[in-house]
User: Which sequence fits this backbone?
């Protein structure tokens, strides 16, 4: 009996604060690498190794093994009524990222482990802060919660079927089902085609600007989304644009942070 | 205790299972688009990306995602070829996939004078329909000519598996370890002469040239046969049919797009 609940706790624990499907994270990092300066690329490989692109979701893996449990809090961002980031302590992505940039900047005085950890934060927390499920808006208190909603599972009229889903899980995994056989390279090409032209706009600004930026993207969503809301198949399909937007922004901004920290 | 295990399993499953019931599987549709992209002329590639603002694979299964939703609901009936009582392709039937492909090709001849939104939508339809018309189970047969084509197979547990669903997913069963790019690498092997022969003619001819493969499916997977007990030779032939049709779908989609966007 205990084992069953332990298994359930593990599943829940893993799913409540994930970033994106692994292959999306890998694609985000591969595209980021393409947009890094040669100096940033060298430093990334120096500390994370040649197989850097496979080192995504390390915090999730650590949590699964019972380590770095506090890292779940690092993935969140909160925005006030004016969509300004709330950074009261270091339990959020913004504070963690700002500290990580400083560590990488001062890497000559830090241990290799400290720099590697900071680089993981730059990658994984930038990704996390662009995931709708990790963004909470003061104006919409339920945006903090992993609420349940109804999603259409096909059929029409009386024959339409619904399934209950969790909001945060949906924003981590709800779109990978459309592209389950895609390679990371295919995602990279897709990101370049659909959002590449916005690259410079995405890379400009500070971490706090980016948080506000995501607040503006997410706000219209919460105008209708909340506990027990209904998501049609068409809306599911259309919201992939918003999802891709987050992945693309995260990807180019990882490059911006590495470029800034290693110049 | 049993109830508890059941609840735990149901919750776990709700986290892990997503809607994977896409016609001809996401694998086949995505692979068709990957192959097509590889055979696009630079002009066609540029135009397609301009109108879609995405890569071809992005829309591989879009028609399945939206088939139950307004305003696209009527297009839900276009996914299969229709064959009349004489075993001939019903080229006057608006529901017939080949008919729709030819209708769209005709409309797109004048794409420069169509609104961008219409060009985009037509492309999204073509991407899916050219692939779907190659799916071995996407055929409606006149009941006089083929009285029993909607039959069931079984699996080793004695559960019913519909003929349609088996062939929709046959490619997924056979190529489950490959991503779409790897699978495309494997089957995209026609010589220029073979390629030319495959793309010759129009959608009606294409459906007719695939007819022997479609009919062979009834012999390979007869009514009530156990899908888990098929011989190695049977499984190879099933896989070969899927490979051949996916390859032809990819080449023909490229040909359709290259012809539309010819300089």
Assistant:
């Amino acid at each position: 009996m205990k084992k069953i609940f332990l298994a359930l706790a593990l599943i829940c624990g893993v799913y409540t604060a994930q970033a994106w499907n692994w292959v999306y994270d890998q694609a985000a990092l591969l595209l980021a690498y393409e947009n890094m300066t040669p100096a940033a690329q060298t430093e990334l490989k120096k500390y994370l190794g040649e197989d850097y692109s496979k080192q995504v979701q390390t915090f999730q893996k650590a949590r699964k093994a019972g380590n770095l449990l506090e890292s779940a809090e690092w993935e969140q961002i909160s925005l006030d009524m004016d969509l300004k980031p709330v950074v009261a302590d270091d339990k959020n992505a913004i504070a963690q990222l700002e500290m990580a940039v400083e560590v990488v900047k001062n890497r000559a005085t830090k241990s290799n482990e400290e720099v590697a950890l900071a680089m993981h934060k730059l990658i994984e927390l930038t990704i996390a802060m662009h995931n709708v499920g990790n963004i909470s808006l003061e104006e919409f208190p339920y945006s903090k919660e992993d609420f349940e909603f109804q999603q259409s599972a096909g059929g029409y009229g009386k024959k339409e079927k619904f399934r209950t889903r969790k909001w945060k899980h949906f924003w981590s995994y709800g779109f990978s089902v459309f592209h389950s056989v895609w390679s990371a390279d295919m995602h990279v090409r897709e990101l370049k085609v659909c959002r590449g032209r916005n690259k410079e706009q995405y890379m400009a600004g500070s971490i706090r600007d980016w948080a506000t930026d995501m607040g503006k993207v997410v706000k219209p969503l919460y105008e209708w989304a909340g506990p027990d809301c209904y998501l049609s198949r068409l809306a599911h399909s259309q919201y992939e644009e918003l999802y891709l937007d987050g992945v693309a922004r995260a990807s180019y901004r990882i490059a911006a942070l590495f470029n800034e920290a290693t110049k | 205790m049993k109830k508890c295990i059941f609840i735990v399993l149901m919750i776990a499953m709700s986290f892990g299972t997503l809607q994977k019931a896409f016609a001809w599987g996401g694998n086949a549709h995505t692979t068709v688009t990957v192959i097509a992209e590889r055979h696009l002329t630079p002009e066609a590639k540029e135009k397609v990306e301009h109108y879609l603002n995405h890569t071809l694979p992005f829309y591989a299964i879009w028609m399945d995602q939206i088939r139950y939703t307004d305003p696209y609901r009527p297009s839900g009936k276009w996914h299969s070829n229709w064959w009349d009582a004489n075993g001939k392709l019903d080229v006057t039937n608006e529901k017939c996939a080949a008919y729709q492909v030819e209708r769209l090709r005709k409309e797109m001849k004048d794409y420069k004078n169509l609104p961008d939104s219409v060009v985009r939508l037509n492309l999204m339809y073509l991407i899916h329909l050219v692939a779907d018309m190659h799916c071995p189970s996407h055929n409606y047969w006149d009941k006089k000519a083929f009285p029993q084509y909607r039959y069931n197979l079984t699996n080793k547990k004695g559960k019913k598996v519909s003929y349609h669903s088996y062939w929709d997913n046959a490619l997924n069963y056979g190529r489950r370890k490959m991503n779409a790019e790897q699978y495309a690498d494997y089957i995209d092997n026609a010589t220029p002469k073979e390629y030319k022969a495959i793309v010759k003619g129009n959608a009606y001819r294409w459906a007719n040239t695939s007819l022997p493969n479609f009919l062979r499916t009834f012999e390979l997977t007869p009514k009530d046969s156990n899908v888990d007990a098929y011989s190695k030779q049977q499984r190879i032939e099933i896989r070969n049919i899927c490979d051949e049709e996916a390859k032809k779908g990819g080449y023909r989609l490229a040909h359709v797009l290259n012809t539309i966007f010819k300089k």
